[in-house]
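Hi D.,

Good news: the full-assembly prediction came through. Inputs first.
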Amino acid sequence: MKSKRSILGTTILIVWAIVSVWPIWFFATIALRPRVEIITPEPIYWPTFTIETWAKIWDEWPMMKYFFNSMVTVAGSVFICLLLGIPAAYSLARYRYKGREDIGNYILSTKMMAPAVVAIPLFVLFAKFNMLDSIWALMMVYSATNLSIVVWIIRSYMIDIPHEVEDAARTDGASDLRILWEIIIPMCLPGIITAAVIASVFAMNEYFLTLIIGRREAYTMSIALANFKGGSDGIIYNAIALIAFMAFFPILALVISIQNHLSRGLTMGAVKG
Amino acid sequence: MTVTTIQTPIRRRSARSRKLLPYLLVMPAVIYLLLITLYPGIYALIRSFYSGKFKLEWAGFDNYAQLFSDGQFANSIWNTVLQGSITLGVEFVIALTLAALVYRDPWVKGFRIIFLLPMLLMPSAVAFIWKLMFNDGRIISDLLKRIGLIDYNVDWMFSPFLARFVVIFVDVWQWTPFLFIIFVAGLQGQDKEVEEAARLDGASWTTLFFNITLPMMQPIIAVALILRGIDIVNMFTPIQVITQGAPGGATETLGYYIQRVGWDGPNFGYASAASVLVLIFTIIISQVLVRRYFRSGTES
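Then the structure:
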């Protein structure tokens, strides 16, 4: 059953590929063109390629800080997620106890919490502890919003590990925690990496809660780009495009590295394949 | 399944500490999540009975009464439902079509990466791409003029219809890949033999797809649509960047409304009341959905 695709089918695929890729390409040229060629009476599709604006952008805005803030908050939040999430996933996947289903469902249901609901209380909470505009606050928020995903993805991979593996170790007298550390974690490493990558992407993208907590100091790339405005300059699309791609390429590399686990990760383990 | 956890008492550990261990392992995560969900819920509930931003005054049910007579609140719910259901429907149809076209293709991995790309840009960046395309740079108008569909620049924020189109379009562009990836995996995972057998019986492509493949995919489709639906209901970024609710609140979603009345408006209490209503709704929905559709794999 090879290539029985109709002309219509091929056309649909080509059209959607162009619709997906062309705007990204066009936006890449925005980063690479002089400012005067961005908003013009007639759009310019093939600009004079230059990176001269980059130096100016770099001088006027703390680009490295935005990049650094994003990286630190993402890495920190993923670390917290794994620290809390791996034991929780192990507990949910490998033990039978009263309330297990309810605890698992509760963890999952936090994914459904509307950010708009938590925004005001979190704002007040962080204000009380003088943590507004702090990257630590962002780290906590990101890890809390992603913990449910991390737990459920890792749990799904742990369930697949056959019990015999543990039984053998247990007869040899290994403790439960040692089994987790020396056997289970190495065996479900693909799941842990998948969870970490997906949590990274979501943390990197977070906009709404970051907007509420961040001021100048704790701007991440995601909200910094919404603030590239300069009086008479209007919206500085060069800088927006530049920072968009500074975030895009690391994420692309991460996601390609887990591409065969992506569907399982995105459905929190509900779809295997 | 009857795989009992092994309880061979080889190690002389007290039964109690063994019983306690699973709770100890799961508790840190639960406490952390309670802090970020239970606390805001309670805070919003208390605050919803007060008015004022810094100096609190008891208001009883005033906030709720006001909310129920607030046309803008009702309007934002309506917009969320209307835009949300159209967005989800369009994404579903496109993603399923694309997935059905490529899942047995030898180049499926290549298609997957290409179609995935929009999803990997930050949503705020995506919002600015389309702000430039539709509004500031007039790129879309220019392209439409070139192929002869229109002969003037369209003001996309002028009519509710066009503004909603833009909001829906942006979400479809970025997030159709999410469903696509999941559907491809689901289709690839289906039993090839069933498919072959039906084909040998002379079933046409359409019968096969609608009578066998789709019913088999149903649980996967449900999970995918729930996850996408949650994000669509909470949609905020493109509204804030591109339309800010324009024209005249026609694209204002619930999330954007709460943020607007909470931050720009007179008090947190009013926004908190709206939050509480959303929260109650969320709890009911999530209980039903989680219990019903995320069961797979629980049987261990």
